[in-house]
Amino acid sequence: MDLTVLGNPVRHPIDHVEVFPAPEHVSNVRFSTDEVGSLCPVTGQPDLSRVVIEYEPGASCVESKSLKLYLWSFRERKVFAEALAAEIADEVMATAQPRRVTVTVTQRPRGGIELAAVAERRS
Question: Which candidate in 2, 40, 61, 90 is catalytic?
Answer without folding.
Answer: 40
